[in-house]
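ok so for the tutorial part 2 we go from a plain amino acid sequence to predicted structure tokens. step 1 is just haveing the sequence, like this:
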Amino acid sequence: MATKKPTKGLGRGFDTLIPQNFDSSLLEDEKDRVQKLLISDILPNKSQPRTEFDEAALHELSLSIKQHGVLQPVVVRTIEDGKFGIVAGERRWRAAQKAGLTHIPAIIRTMEELEQLEIALVENVQRVDLSPLEQAVSIQRLHDQFSIAYEEIAKRLGKANVTIQNTVRLLNLPDDARAALQAGTITEGHARAILSLKDHPEKQTELLNFIIKNHWSVRQAEQFATATKKGAKSTKKAQQQLEKTTPETEKLSKKLHTPVTIRRTANGGKLEIAFKTNTELNRLIRKLSKVAK
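step 2 — the prediction. this is what the tokens look like for a chain of 293 residues:
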């Protein structure tokens, strides 16, 4: 169980480098560069990871734009023939078109500036003091806002692709589990056990509570998750899978004069008989051999 650390959230220090609102970060100290561009001169990002846009949501946004205008500029880069390519804000650009606007506020970034921002994100992920959730946010932004594949991000960071994708999955944790992970109340291993119960939301909450209240190890959390996924009919049944001792193991302990415990695994479990010396081991072997005959 991880030692509880003071809650630091994503913090102002983190926000300074990678703010929660990416577009706002692009506008910091660059307000003089915001200008009106013809919507027809702006082209969508061909590498945009999102290929489908919710039409109902776009319609709702277009109505808001008709009433209030575009409150936040899109971010673009110069491409060719007086055209601009969208870096961030494609949803706003599409909604502005639906609203019938001819111009949209935009901030123009050079490729060099965009590369610097991308490098800052990569360097941030490599910081040793970054929490797993903060790493996940940085990686996801590299993927979404710079259209970098997870495989490429993994190469740049010198990590396995599966490690990168597992880190990003932490963003799918329920809110209470995310808060517990950020506060250090649970570990990343605990969080993965909770994530494995994504098809059982109510069990995710139960598992989080058991981890915190009973100081469960990661192994215990995994065993509970495994039992639940295998169809344990109740929380009590799933908890029983974690028990190391039972009335039967206690009887064996008395007969063998040594602790006997059960260690559950994903495919059943192991019956463990403890010994301290070779002499004691030989005694147990002789005793068990007699039982076998």
